[in-house]
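User: Could you check the structure of this?
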Amino acid sequence: MEVTIIGGGLAGVEAAYQLARRGYGVTLFEMRPHRSTPAHTTPYLSELVCSNSLKSNEISNAHGLIKEELRRLGSLLIRVADETSIPGGKALVVDRKTFSQRITESIKNNPFIRLIREEALDIPSGVVIIATGPLTSDAFSKKIKEITGEENLFFYDAISPIIDSTSIDMSKAFYGARYMERKEDYINCPLTEDEYNIFYDELIRAKQVPVRGFDTIPYFEGCLPIEVLAGRGKETLLYGPMKPVGLKDIQSQKRPYAVLQLRREDETGSMYNMVGFQTRLTYTEQERVFRLIPALRRAVFFRYGSVHRNTYINSPLLLNNGLQLLRDIRIFFAGQITGVEGYVESIAMGLIAGISVDKYLQKKPFIPPPEHTCIGALLKYITTVRHNFQPMNINFGLIKNYSKKEKASVVTHALESIAKWKKMMDDSSINRRSRLS
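Assistant: Sure, the predicted structure tokens are below.
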């Protein structure tokens, strides 16, 4: 029995793997490298385009807890992320290229998965998972409009520049993660008050790349361009991406007035990402303004920041809790196009789509994970009708009956519950696996 998956990003690959491990044949369409996007630069599957960080690894943090849930559910993407991780303080940070290469090899070598490197221009018959992501092509966006009967919703997302590590002036920078002195996971570029004031003044008057087609740009709040944040007030950056909290300059032994953190992009430390500095400044202005930061006076940019379109559907009106299209239940959606925001959140919805398809093909009901788990709470959010639906990262506020005072119990309950849910889902798939073996 074949399943077609359109999109070889994080969600599409995770869904393909979950179906393959359950014995289904999968045809996976990925249009790159024959047709690229404004944000991708490699031909590899599951390329990380915005950052190489999958956020916190601590289970006391919602981002850490959802990753642990995925580990216990047998996620391919999280396993490879763990295997390709590089130092990143308390975050799960991966070597971007190695991660995508390893994922691509795993899919190519899977006997149950057929990878087709071409753009899907139509929705085929049979069971289909649409995981085309936030950069869905215009042609396929039209197909989505046809099957949903709803206009796509759009918002713009931005990515940060990447710096050549050899061009960083380390006499004006220091290593250290927040509250973790001398850790080499991050390079910190401090600014005095006068240096910050000059930087800020030039940032808010710098030229930006025009975005056509919108009077105002509906950015996702969790990934605002640095210049948009700066426009909200002179101290906004000091409480956001340039906050000095938890950092101490090794030379002066004092906390800087402001700081830019650079996060390692690869295992060798040859490239560093400007954390929180996503932008739509012109390339010339990025060089001029960002080089006002003392440690970056001679910075060489491997990649400039940019803005790209993100596409998502109005999932609460269109999908059931198994991510099936209400108008045509043979069609499933997965990943960021459903309205989740973030790498790990996309992986989680890919995993859910794969398991949901398995139940559909077995003519068995799909029972969603409990709402007091991160994955269940996120699924509940995107499939519950609400006014003004907006993309969402995982956070503890989504979890049913969450109490900050009882966080430890919430975490324990979530992990116990996800284990029970996994057993229930696996038990209902045993008959199929035994027939295949």
